[in-house]
Amino acid sequence: MAKELIKGNEAVIKGALLAGCRNYFGYPITPASEIAHAASKYFPLLGRSFLQGESEVASINMCYGAASAGVRTMTASSGPGISLKQEGISYAAGSELPIVIVDIQRGGPGLGNIAPEQGDYNQVTKGGGHGNYKTIVLAPNCAQEMCDLTMLAFDLADEYRTPVYVFTDGYIGQMMEPVEFPKAREIKVEKDWAVWGNRESRDNLINSIYLEPLELEAHNQKLQDKYQLIEEKEVMFDTYRLDDAELVTMGYGIVSRILKTAIDKARKKGLKVGLLRPITLFPFPNKKIQELGNRVNSFLVVEMSNGQMVQDVKLALLGAKPVYFYNRMGGVVPTVNEVLNKIEEILK
Amino acid sequence: MAKDILRKPKGFNDVYFNKPGADKENTHYCPGCGHGVVHKLIAEALEDFGVADRAIMISPVGCSVFVYYYFATGNVQAAHGRAPAVATGLKRANPDSIVISYQGDGDLGAIGGNNILQAANRGENITVIFVNNAIYGMTGGQMAPTTLVGQRTMTTPYGRSVENEGYPIKICELLASLESPAYLERTAITDVKNIMKTRLAIRKAIKVQIDNKGFSLVEILSACPSGWRMTPRKAKEWITTNMMPYFKPGVYKDVLNERKPYAPAKLNLSLDEIDEKLGLKEEAPSFPGDMSGLKENHRNPRIKVAGFGGQGVLMLGNVLAEAGMLQGYEVSWLPSYGPEMRGGTANCQVHIDEDKIGSPVVSDSTVLIAMNKPSLDKFVPDVVPGGVVLYNTSMIDQAPRRKDLEIIPVPASEIADATGDLKVANMVMIGAYLETTKVVSKEAVFAALDIAIKHKGFIPMNQKAIEQGIEHVRKIKG
Q1: CATH superfamily of this structure's domain B296-476
Q2: In this structure, which CATH number among 3.40.50.300, 3.40.50.970, 1.10.10.10, 3.20.20.140 belongs to the domain B8-254?
Q3: What residues form DSSP beta bridges with A163?
Q4: For B420-466, what is each residue's pLDDT tens digit?
C-alpha cells in the first residue's frame, strides 16, 4: 500500500477511481472544488470521463444518464449545490439509480459562507427532495475514510440501487492527512437492469413514473423495504472509551475529532465520558443508542448546526435519558475547551 | 405487399407492454397530434440504419413523457427539461450508443433552456428531436416559450402579449449562433411534402450521430388540436398559416462537410497501469524518528504557521507535515482557505504526533511560526506556556513580550534574500524550527521537499534556505 499525505477531497477521487468510477460530472463550489480539480486531472489519465456540467442541476442529471447506462458515476458539491441537485436525486432514488454524491458542507443558509458547517444533515439524511425516499449517508472524519468510504459508497450504491452520499464538512475535505491507498482491483458488477445500448438491454426502462396509484404505492413499498433492509444490515459506527462511560458524546465529521480530544482531557480529570460516532447517518445507529441508553446516564450531542442530528438521537431514546446539546453555527468550529466545559457542566 | 406496408418499424413496439391499463395497442396521443408521425419517422430511421439495438430514447416531461411505451429501444425517462443532460451522461458513459433526446417546447425551450444550449454548445454527439406545438399539452394547454403572440392559452387567456411575455423563442435561430452544433433544421408536419422533408431531416440528424459528427437537432412544427381547441384538419392549417410564417422552416446549420468524425479514444489500462497513473506505485522514503529524547515542550508539537498570503505559509506547514509522516509519526495539516488566501493573511495548523490525532484544529499551539506582525500579535496569546515562537524579525520589529515562551528570532526574509530569493523565507523558518526542536530531521525535510514541490528546479534553492535557517539557529544558540 502506498502512503500519501493528501487532502481529503483528493483522496475521494483516488478512491473513486480505484472503485471503478467511469464518469465524473460536477460544478465548482468551495470547499468542494478540489474534488473537481483532482477528477479533471486523474479521470482522463485513466481514459475515463470528466465533464464540468453547466450547473449542479445538469451535473446530477448527467450522473442520472451515466448511471442509467450502467457505469459507476459520481458528482460532488457543497450545501447550495446539493440543494439544487435534490430534484435529480429524487428522480435517481425513484428510478433506483446508483450514484455517489459527495457533500462537503459549508455555512448556510443561502450563500452563507465557505467555512465548515453541518447544516445539511436534514437535507441529506431525510431524503431532501420530493417523495418517499432516503439515501445512504456515509460520514468520514479523516482523509483515510474519505478514500475508504467513497469506495464503499460505490459498492453500496450498486448493491441497493440507490444514491449514496459521502458527507462531511469543509475541514475534513480541506485537511491533509496520510492515506494508505489499496491497490487497484478488478471491479465487475452485473447490472441486468441497465440501458446498455445493445440488443440484450432493449426492453430495459429507467423510470420513476407509475401513473396508477396502486402501482406507485407498490413501488414506494419496495423502496421502503429496501431502506429497512439497509437499516438492518448497513449501520456503521465507531466508539471511543465507552466501556465505563456515564456520559456518551455524539458527533460526526470534524466534531467527532474534537470530541475525541475533549474526552481524553476529561478522562484525565477523572470524568467518565466516551464517544459514539455514527459513520452511517442513514442508517442511523438507533439500536446502539438504545443499548447505551440502558446503561449510561446521559448523552451530549455536539453539532455545527442548529441541532439536526440531535433530533434523531432523541427519537432513538424516546425520552429514556437526558440528551444535552452543544452547538456552534455559521462556520464557527467548537473548540476542545468549549466542549470540555460542557462535559464538566453536565457531569458536575 | 400490403402486409409489408402495414408492418411497424422494428424500432417500434408491436404491443405497448410498458403502457398501463388494458389497451396495449393504441397510443395515448390525441387525434391529429403530430407525435405519432414523428415517432414513426424516428423508428423507421433506426431500423433502416440498423441501429435500433444501440438506440436509447429519452422520454421528457410533457405529452411525450410516454415515449418509452412505444420505442423498442433502451428507454430512459428524464426530469423536466433535463433530457440533454441525461443524454450527455448516457452518451459519455457509452459512446457506442445512439442517444435520442425527444423533447417538447416547454421542456426544451423553457425549463430546460440552459441544458439544451449547453449540450449544443459542447457539440455533444446526440440527436435532439424537438417537437414545437406552441403549447403545454400535458398540463392542460398553458403558454409555451413558443406560443405565438396573441395566441390564447390557459395562462394567456387574453392572448400572449409582447409586453408581458415577450416574443416566442426561435430555438433553431438561437442555436445556429453557436459554433459547435453540426446540423440544425426546422420542418413541419402538415402535408405529405413536409412530412417527407421531416423524414429526411430526422434521418440526417441520426446519421450525424452515427458518423460521430456531433450535435444535431430537428425542430418539428406539430399540431396540438386538443390544446389549440381545433379540429385536426384546422390545426394543420393553423401550422401553415400561423406558425410557419414566424418559425420559418429550413436548414439553419449544416457544417457536416467541415466536421471530422470524433469519438473518444478507448483506453484499457491494466491494474498495474492504474496504480502507476494514480501515483500509488511510488513508495515514500522512510526516516524512522524518535521523539522520546526530546525536550518535553518540543514533543508532539501542535504548530500554527501564519503570515501574509504569498509568504508560503501553507507550503511551510505542508513540508513539516510531510516530513513528520516520513518519520513515521501521525500528522495532520489544516489550512485556512477561501478568499482569505487571496491576498489577505493565511495560516495553517499542523500536528506531528506519536499517537493518533484527535482534533486537527490547533487552538492552543505549542509552536507558533509567525511570518509577519499581524500574525504574531494575533496568535501569541494562544501559545501554551513553554511553547516555542519563531518570528520573522525582517518583518516584525518588536519581540513578543511573554516571558514564559522559548522565543527564536529569525531574520527569515533577509536570509532568504541573501540566499537568492525572498520567497524561500518559509524554508529558512523550517530550518530554524528543525534545528530548534529536532522533531523532524533535515533528511526527512529534504525528502519531503521532493514530494511537496512540483517544480524540481526550485529544490536546490529551498534546500539552501533550510541550511541557512539551521545555521542561523546554531549561531544564536552558540
Answers
A1: Pyruvate-ferredoxin oxidoreductase, PFOR, domain III (3.40.920.10)
A2: 3.40.50.970
A3: none
A4: 999 999 999 999 999 999 999 999 999 999 999 989 999 999 999 99
Of B92, B266, B274, the CB nearest to A66: B92
- pLDDT, residue B5, reads 62
A68 touches chain B (CB under 8 A): yes
The Cα of B151 is separated from the nearest Cα of chain A by a number of Å equal to 31
Tens digit of each residue's pLDDT (9 = 90 or more) over B273-290: 999 999 998 888 999 999
> For residue range B381-394, what is the model confidence (pLDDT) as tens digits?
999 999 999 999 99
Which residue of chain B has the CA closest to A71? B93
| A217 at B interface, C-beta within 8 A | no
Confidence of residue B342 (pLDDT cuts 50, 70, 90): low
CATH number listed for the domain at residues A4-233: 3.40.50.970
Cα distance from B423 to chain A (closest Cα, Å)? 23
Residues 6+ apart with CB under 8 A from B209: B98, B99, B125, B126, B127, B216
Angle at B449 between CA B443 and CA B453, to 5 degrees: 170
For residue A62, the chain B residues in CB contact (below 8 A) are: 85-86, 88-89, 92
Chain B contact for A69 (CB, 8 A cutoff): yes
CA A127 to chain centre: 12
Question: Whole-angstrom Cα distance, residue B361 to residue B440?
Answer: 21
B381 at A interface, C-beta within 8 A: no
Rounded to a whole number, what is the distance in Å from the CA of A23 to chain B's nearest CA? 7
Chain A residues in contact with B360 by the CB 8 A cut-off are 171, 175, 177, 254, 257
Asked if the model's pLDDT at residue A35 lies above 60, the reply is: yes
Substitution target from B90, B116, B270, B451 for chain A, most A beta carbons within 10 A: B90
Amino acid identity of residue A56, one-letter, is E
CA–CA distance, B35 with A213 (Å, rounded to integer) = 26
- DSSP E strands in B111-245: the ranges are 127-132, 183-188, 216-221
Amino acid B197 reads K
Q: Which of residues 75-104 of A touch B (CB under 8 A)?
A: 87-88, 91, 95
Rounded to two decimals, the pTM is: 0.96
Q: Please indicate whether, in this complex, the C-beta atoms of B114 and A66 are within 8 angstroms of each other.
A: no
User: What is the SS3 string spanning B424-452?
Assistant: HHHHHHHHHHHHHHCCCCHHHHHHHHHHH
Per residue in B63-116, pLDDT (tens digit) is 999 999 999 999 999 999 999 999 999 999 999 999 999 999 999 999 999 999
**Cβ atoms within 10 Å, residue A143:** 27
Residues of B in contact with A195 (CB under 8 A): 56, 74-76, 90
Asked, colleague to colleague, whether B8-254 and B296-476 share their fold, the answer is no
Domain ranges of chain B: 8-254, 296-476
Q: What are the residue ranges spanned by the domains of chain A? A: 4-233, 238-347
CATH class assigned to A238-347: alpha beta
